[in-house]
Design a protein that fits this description.
By secondary structure, the protein is mainly β. The protein is built from no helices and eleven strands. A hairpin with a 6-residue loop joins strand 4 (32-38) and strand 5 (45-50).
């Protein structure tokens, strides 16, 4: 599975960004997908995940600001981020796994999101 994340950038606090993750190498609809982020000096954390069947999960810090979605026809995963805060500044990674739970063996290269105050 190959993953290519894009859509990061610099945005002011309160602004929005939409991240995309293009997948190839396996039937996309069968993959369980997730978005992670890692800020400088911090551990990587799960932002949101969506199962092959559309089950959603969000990290507590999202608090209704982000929406994860997938377009199986386009083999693409999305993360719509609204009401961005400086604390959201991080490198965002998309990831995939075959199983519903467990480790994430497939990772994209990361896209930088910087939120200015």
């Amino acid at each position: 599975v190959q993953l290519q994340a894009s859509g990061g950038g610099l945005v002011q606090a309160g602004g929005s960004l939409r991240l995309s993750c293009a997948a190839s190498g396996r039937t996309f609809s069968s993959l369980n997908m997730g978005w992670f982020r890692q800020a400088p000096g911090k551990e990587r954390e799960l932002v949101a995940r969506i199962s092959s069947g559309g089950i959603l999960y969000y990290g507590d810090f999202v608090k209704g600001r982000f929406t994860i979605s997938r377009d199986n026809a386009k083999n693409t995963l999305y993360l719509q981020m609204n009401s961005l805060k400086p604390d959201d500044t991080a490198v965002y990674y998309c990831a995939a796994r075959i199983e519903y739970s467990g480790s994430w063996p497939y990772w994209g290269q990361g896209t930088q999101v910087t939120v200015s105050s």
